[in-house]
Amino acid sequence: MIDAAFVAFGEDAMWTGIEAPVRIRFGTSDEEGKFSESGFISRGDRMRVRQSEVPAPNEGDIVSVATGLNAGTYRLVGEPILGSKRVWDCDVTVVR
Known about the structure:
Elements: H1 2-9, E1 11-15, E2 22-35, E3 38-50, E4 62-65, E5 72-76, E6 81-82, E7 87-94
């Protein structure tokens, strides 16, 4: 089921230190914060990649997407989190 989702909805990308293209999926992450007495929600970009394709992503890795809606270059920020289905959740920022 996970593999089918990556095939159907994923995008090809080149990942730092990985020779062959990997299949990634994009999403967003919401993080709650507090400023004085007020709360806020900060939205960020998140990339998901299967552990079978990227065994150990690291903060600072560069990911390049050549075509499609999300074409561009991204840098991993923060520590990637490995989920129970062996998929890494990685917060990313666009490299300009």
